[in-house]
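Dataset card, provenance and construction

Sequences and ligand SMILES were collected as paired inputs. For each pair, a complete structure of the chain with the small molecule in place was predicted and serialized as structure tokens. The example below shows a pair involving NAP. Curators did not alter the output after generation; any descriptive sentences attached to a record were derived from the structure itself.
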Amino acid sequence: MPIDTNLKPTSKRSQSIKSYNERTSLPYIRLSFGMSLDGKIATYTGDSKYISGPESRQFVHRLRHNSDAILVGINTILIDHPSLTTRLTNQVGKDAHRIILDSTCRIDPYEPLLLQTSNARTIVVTKLNSHPQKISALRKQGILVLEIECTSSTLPLLEVLSQLYQMGIRSILVEGGSTVHFSFIRDHLFQELYATISPLIIGGEQAKGAVGGQGFQTLNESMKLHIKSIKHVGKDYIIHAIPDIKGE
Ligand SMILES: NC(=O)c1ccc[n+]([C@@H]2O[C@H](COP(=O)([O-])OP(=O)(O)OC[C@H]3O[C@@H](n4cnc5c(N)ncnc54)[C@H](OP(=O)(O)O)[C@@H]3O)[C@@H](O)[C@H]2O)c1
């Protein structure tokens, strides 16, 4: 297995993004999560800052720097209150647009991420008319609200991605949480995955695993992956994988 220490995206990768965009009219999706050796992305109390070491967090910031947008689920916002900005130590980072999946518009208009100064926009994706008052307050604040007509309990990802593509977003880094990861994996809507594994054990049945949701019923249905490389970064290992189309 190659140990790849190059943290910079290659021009070959930019080409794959472009050709995927042209072929599908959808943004290119990379999933990224930082987990303990036992596969947890937070403790049972929701504490997740920080499982990964500083060096691998820099790697994730570089992925952000090279993505048009970062996407998270509303629970991650409500629990972690992340800024989702790009903070690189050796250069000025380019913030990616921040996308939040929030079907019933639970976001607090005073959420720090909505009030911070950033060149990138925040996009709240919600169901059509989920909360008209809050939607109009958010818009007045300069937040983009993307309303999706749907009857399902969660937002339909394909439709969401298609509309984000029409807004000009060509690549998205999906950064959690557990429920959102499963939705993208279940719907086969990702092209690359970066799992950062750190040498600690969190334990706990209530602690979120990297991929939650309902999960697959049988191993036969599970998502098969092809491991492209393993990077040793600081004390962590970053596994880079892609869906194994032949193994499906
Ligand atoms: N270590 C890491 O890398 C990392 C990264 C991020 C988060 N985390 C941790 O993950 C935990 C939160 O994870 P979580 O699983 O509870 O929540 P989550 O994935 O952040 O958010 C899930 C919520 O997003 C909304 N949503 C809307 N459309 C969806 C769709 N199509 N698919 C999935 N979700 C959709 C749903 O809420 P509505 O129905 O209300 O819309 C859903 O309950 C936190 O403890 C956080 O610290 C860890």
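Derived descriptions for this record:
The chain has a mean pLDDT of 94.
Residues 33-34, 41-42, 46, 48, 51, 72-76, 79-80, 101-104, 106, 154-155, 157, 175-180, 183, 208, 212 surround NAP (CB under 6 Å).
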